[in-house]
Amino acid sequence: MTPRNSILLVFVLVVGFTAIWHLQIAIDAQRAAILQERDDLLVTSPKLLKMASLEYAPLLADIYWTRAVQYYGQKHAGNDPNLMLLWPLLNIATTLDPNLLPAYRFGAMFLSDAAPRGAGRPDLAVELIERGIQANPDYWRFYEDLGFIYYFDMKDYAKASQAFLDGSKNPNAQLWMKVMAAKIAAEGESFETSAFLWHDVYQSATDPSTKQGALDHLQLLQAQQACMQLDELGDEYEKRTGHRATRISQFVQEGLLRGAPVDPLGFPYELGDDGKAHLNAKSPLLEKQKQFAQFK
Amino acid sequence: MTHIGAVGLNTFREAVRDRVLYNLVFFALLMMGAAVLVGQISIGIEEIVIVSLGLSAISFIGLLMAVFIGVGLVSKEMDKRTIYALLSKPLRRWEFLLGKFVGLVFTLAVNTVAMSAGLFLALLYVKHTLERSDAAVLIAIYFILLKLAIVVALALLFSCSTTSLLSILYCAGFYVAGSFVQEMRTLRSDLAGPVAAAIMRWLSYLLPNFENFNVTGLAAHGAKIPTALIAQNTLYAALYCAVVLAGAAAIFSRRNFK
Amino acid sequence: MPGPAIEIDNLTKEYPYGFLNLKKKTSLEGLTMQVETGEVFGFLGPNGAGKSTTIKLLMNLIFPTSGHARLLGKSTTNVEMHRDIGYLPEQPYFYDYLTAAEVLDYFAKFYDLAPADRKARVQNMLKKVGLETAGKIQLRKYSKGMLQRVGLAQAILHDPQLVILDEPMSGLDPVGRREVRDIILELKNAGKTILFSTHILPDAEMLCDRVGVIVGGKLQGIGAPGEIVGIKAHEMEILFALPNLGQNSSPLLAKATRMGDRYRLQVPEQDLYAALDQLRNGEAKILSVAQVKPSLEEYFMHLVAADRAQAAAVEVTGK
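Predict the joint structure of the above. Result:
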């Protein structure tokens, strides 16, 4: 090659790539304008894809899962709450490879989170996880995910508790699954279920700290229940006298109680300025209550 | 110019005589099958399915042809020693290369036009009519052709410098990479480190961006494709082919034909 | 008298090979020679001697490591040079999906001929190489000999001033070889310059004005076939019979070769008369006396042997 041609080549390459660079920026802008509302998935039928992918279905699943992650990531980075393609992508990925565990777990997370962090579709997240459970019945962590979706995103404590409980039946499941079930049951004010579960944890736990924790929870449950009953008495007292009681002794005077009730550690309950019952300021249980509340 | 045309015409003739265009039979069967079946198994998305499937098939068949024939354009002439007699004519090496490129792109164009006709027949069969918005499908097909031209240029470049098998692998690699260019660009520096992110960004502009030419989704829904994009994509493909072919010509003109 | 048709000046070609192309193999070393206009020049040498390398360098198919060449006064890097040059590659092969007529028509397009002229020339050429009946058959059905004819046809299609043929006779039957010879002579009569390579020596002896012998990438000798042969001292061959075998006890008899009832004896030219005297004394019947003309073949073998010996020596000394 002559020197003249070499110079020409370098010139063509430099000018060409510079022009391509600038053109690409223009094309990006043009495409962004028309494609913004038009994220699209060419083939939306997972079954068709599975047939077409032959033995490469798991590989294709990985690609679709990657696409889902990229899609979510891009939308997230661009603060774009429109995640309409997320479900089809996850649907395809998990149909192509039903054992693609991360696709269920993180996919459910993307789906269930409220906008702008996620798609705000906990119902689809539940569907995804339930499919995951069906395909991978031995994987107990799906129950954990299911429980959290019900708990955080749908505020359905009964179902959340049930999910943790179902998961805890798996022999591989860790003990805290049962703990979660119990805690959530308590929060949903299903004291009986909660007490039953804590009792179960207390029985089955082997390490002393878990055992102590279960005991604490049982005692607190008892206290919580007592306080609620006391509040009911408070309502009755107000009805009769026209004003709220500020001391437990007023219930006794009115004949609503025979004596001052005590918490499981023997400290009498107290009434606050608002007339609501609470633990005695001296009771060690109060400290525990504050501790547990922090984890909520 | 006549030299380039002569080489191009011969390249086209070779493809025809090697029965390359038989792939059209396969495409026709696919379109017919889809047209008949889609009406029976689905409601309301006949058009979308026909267009999506048709465009995907046009793109896929075109890609196979562009890569496999493109890689053989030069290497076959060398393996079969037909190039000796040819280059002893008053034919410049870059003319030969450009002629090969033009010939294969022309072959692909003929093939694509035939497939497009099949696609529109299938569309007519399921819709019983054609609308103005179906022009988007034509533009999508045109974009596929632009994309194929870049692939042919790349195939030529690789086959000028390495073996056929490696050329095929490189082509496939570039195609895949070129389809994920957008993802490379959005790679965040806090995840990959600033150096890797900068390299990726650079690469994302240097690699052929095949995503530019993908408007299948728009076409399937009969959306309007702006004229500016057509012009930009045409220019992009022309520039990219020019740059790649210049590189190929530089390599080819220094090649010894032992 | 116009200038030389081919001027080759110190042409050298090395091929790198081995790991990272660090080693070099020299295919052609410092070739300098000229081929005059209107001459038939034979390029001789065993396989791998550098004949094809030289021809490909001349056709700009490969590029010299150093040196340069001019054909018809134009540098090999000038693409216009090819307008007046015809080239037949070694073992030519053409697009097997085309017919002979189509291949010739395709090649003719590069000489910017008018379509009508092109068509006439193609038909003419097919007739000339004896393919007019096979012109419409795809080349994939052609025999090697037929392909060689197509190759020849494409080389002379555009009526070039200089024709370079790489092994034009190889793979041909005697009839085919004769036809190629006729075409070369016809070109010569038309005033064209022809350079062809061959390892078949009688062809060269019969056709060439001059020959160049190349062995091991080096030019070993150049000149008229007779001159090349003349390098070696001539010998005389005596054919005789011995009717009375018993009476002859000449020491010469031991050197003679017996062929049936005749003997063949080869002696240096200066010893001829002494030998004849001795034979007459021994009552031998002289049948014929003739000059032994060492063929190019012998010359050739001699050079190859020398080259091999040298190569071996180089290997031993590790140079």
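Chain B has one domain: 2-253.
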